[in-house]
Amino acid sequence: MKRIMLYALAVSLLVSWIVFFPNSANAETTVTIQNSWDQVSQILSNIKPPTFPNQNFNITDYGAVGDGTTDCTDAFKQAIDAANQAGGGVVVVPAGTYLTGAITLKSNVNLYVSNGATIKFSQDPSKYPIVLTQDGGIEIYNYSPFIYAYGAENIAITGSGTLDGQADNTHWWPWKNLAGSDGELENYYSDNNVPVEQRIFGNGHYIRPVFIQPYKSKNILIQGVTILNSPNWQINPVLCDNVTVEDVKICGGGPNKFGNNDGPNTDGVDPEQTQNMLIENNYFLCGDDDIAIKSGKNADGRRINVPSKNIIIRNNYFSDGHGGITIGSEESGGVNNIYAENNIFDSPNLDYAFRFKTNSVRGGTIENIYYRNNTIKNLSNKGGVLYFDLNYGEGDTGPFTPILRNIVLDNITSNGGKYGIYTSMYDRAPLTGLQITNSTFNNVGISMVLQNVLDPIFLNFTVNGTTYNSIPIITTATVTPSQPDGLNGWYIHAASVILSAVDSLSTDFQTLYSLDGITWNTYTDPIIFQTDGQYKLKYRTIDRDSKGNIQNKEAIQILNLNIDTLAPTIDIISPEPDCIFGDSLDLTPQFTVTDNLSGVDQNKTVIRIDGQIQSESSIPLYVLPLGKHTLTVTASDMAGNLNTKTILFQTTTSINDLKNLVTHFTDNGWIDNNGISNSLLKKLDHEGLNEFINEVQAQKDKHISVNAANILLRDAKFLLNN
Fold first, then answer.
1. Count of beta carbons in the 10 Å neighbourhood of residue 403
2. Which pLDDT score is estimated for 505?
3. Per-residue b or e along 501-533, where b marks 16 or more CB atoms closer than 10 Å to that residue's CB
């Protein structure tokens, strides 16, 4: 399928596409979606809740008092240690209210909060020791999460009781406005790869701990409890494997029947660099995102480089919150294989149902996200049903371009919201693989604002009563000649390009092209390329709605055309034209071949003398007849253009040339007797050419080789006759 790029639609009813895919396209899309969901059973096979020995450890046996004022921190610690040392068991919190500081779970321990039991966490920061933790995707040492585990296996928090963080407008929450410099310091530590053990916060700083954070742990169950008044994020597994969160009332913010909590940043469930997780049958009423899937922030996320993946979200009820299911913004390690189905979103205070947020400081890849059979009963008028924002936070100010691809929605019913779909993507990083099928978005303020979305598939997708079944604009470029008539992809004659467009969605479309990537021209006639150069022809087609507003923009297509009609330039430096050389010299031709476009084909440069190819770089002139000669250089460029340059030169001889040749032939053994050589030289000293000729003839094929004798005789006779 060709690619289509959709850009901003300014008002809600700009889009009115009513076309249909062939049956084969529908079938192919259905199969693709179904095959994607087939992976869920495999993921579920890796998610198994832990089991525990049938032995109980009641915290009251270790000194806990359920009066809401007695500090039970040590009692919790003793009971957990005892269960752990006994090989595992259930730490029972009976009915009553128990005040405590940080609780650290250990392997094979189930913290069971009975019906009628409330664990209230101290508002005194000193009750939370400094531990290795993550804050917003950056590793630091800070106040312990209220319930913490590090490197543990088989741990659980279960029961129908309540976990009350006791955060309020006096305790913990005000730190949000005091932690600005701490956040800057965290970013500095991350960006400069400061060793984690040197990143010490806690006393004197204002970074709020999260509520529940298992760290580098596995086989985790959180079930049945109610969570209230969280200081920060509520359930935040970090670098964990095999996690189940089910039947939990997660109420960290917003007025609700469980308590009047309006806490900042009280995300519900934030998986961080975590895999194989089930989030099922929970109630969310949060002061920020209900679910926010993350994988580390900026340099720290890239350093750890662990994605969040294989997460199933089903049968949950999302009430108040900022976003229902959010991915990002801290996702530098990537997020993939997320499945959400049969969830209900129902609050006029919920801003987004499905949100993706990141930027080029974060980077990361978000892919293979599948949502089906979800019902959005109500949304506020602030956000939207499906919202992509690559300009979140710092915006496009970094070198780490994020990638978003393969986002698939099927059977989604929605009511309300400012936008049906909103995308704010980069030109260099468009959204690919967006599919929305069998879905209806009603009562949205603006149907779609789509920027840099390539090849979306909309099948039976209705927004505010208008059904979309998308077929992309397709522009075809036809080049004449159809193939380069030169070599190596070069045209050596003029070429022309005809652009033709097919748009099944509109009759009002316009094809544009650009040769510089900046200025766009309306295509009307064939584009002729007859000037030498390397061209990058960009082209696309846009269409318009009934009001003349730009509706769709096809993805920019690029056609490269290389035109080189000129042969390379040859300059012969030596010999110069009409030069006269003595034949005792060697001729070394010197020349340059230049081509500033396709370049010189070095393998096709040929030197000829009198039509004969010369393979040696230096040519002894005595091998040539005396008189006029031609030197020809033939060269080709990489496009196949040939050029030839020829000059004339002459060879002659003299007494000195004869003497030099006698010495040369002697040195090379062609005259094998020094006495004969000296005799010949003495005759030449006295210009005794006849005597010279007689001796050469006498010694030919004896002490003087035939070839050498012939050359010496030729030159001597020439001198006698001239």
1. 15
2. 56
3. bebebbeebebbbebeeeebeebeeebebeebe
Is residue 702 domain-shared with residue 576, that is, in the same domain? no
Which of the four pLDDT bands, split at 50, 70 and 90, describes residue 4? Answer: very low
Report the phi/psi class of residue 146: left, alpha or beta, with left for phi > 0 and alpha for psi in -120 to 50: alpha
List, for residues 436-447, the tens digit of each pLDDT value.
Answer: 999 999 999 999
Q: Pairing mode, if any, of strands 457-463 and 466-468?
A: antiparallel
**CA distance to 293, 460, 502, 649, per residue, from 99 (Å):** 31, 55, 71, 109
Is pTM beyond 0.85? Reply is: no
| Angstrom distance (rounded) from CA 258 to CA 230 | 13
In the numeric block, which tokens belong to residue 622? 């005595």
Contact 413, 385 (CB under 8 A): no
Burial (Cβ within 10 Å: 0-12, 13-18, ≥19) of residue 560: exposed
- pLDDT bucket at 5, cuts 50 / 70 / 90: very low
Per-residue pLDDT tens digits for 282-297: 999 998 999 999 999 9
Kindly give the residue spans of alpha helices, DSSP state H, lying in 465-511: none
Q: Where are the alpha helices (DSSP H) in 176-327?
A: 180-191, 298-304
Contacts of 372 (CB under 8 A, 6+ apart): 33, 37, 340, 341, 409, 410, 411, 412
Q: In 405-467, which residue ranges form alpha helices assigned H by DSSP? A: none
Within this chain, do residues 161 and 189 fall inside the same structural domain, yes or no?
yes
Q: Using an 8 Å Cβ cutoff, are 205 and 140 in contact?
A: no
- Looking at the structure, tell me whether residues 270 and 213 fall in a common domain: yes
- Which of the two residues, 687 and 84, has the higher pLDDT score? 84
In the block, which residue shows the tokens 């049968």?
315
How many CB atoms neighbour CB 693 within 10 A?
17
Which stretches of 87-161 are assigned E, i.e. beta strand?
89-93, 96-100, 103-104, 109-113, 117-121, 130-135, 138-143, 147-150, 153-159
Cα–Cα dist 226/411, whole Å: 31
Q: What is the CATH number of the domain that holds 109?
A: 2.160.20.10
Q: State the chain's mean pLDDT as an integer.
A: 91
Distance CA 121, CA 144 (A): 12
How many domains, in total, are found in the chain? 5
Tokens representing 320 are 């108040």
Answer yes or no: is pLDDT of 157 > 70.
yes
What distance in Å separates the CA atoms of residue 460 and residue 412, rounded to the nearest whole number? 11
List, for residues 520-573, the tens digit of each pLDDT value: 999 999 999 999 999 999 999 887 766 666 666 788 999 999 999 999 999 999
Q: What CA–CA distances, in Å, run from 26 to 33, 38, 408, 412, 462?
A: 11, 19, 14, 17, 16
Instruction: Give the pLDDT of residue 471.
Output: 62
CATH code of the domain in which 490 resides: 2.60.40
Rounded mean pLDDT, 166-185: 94
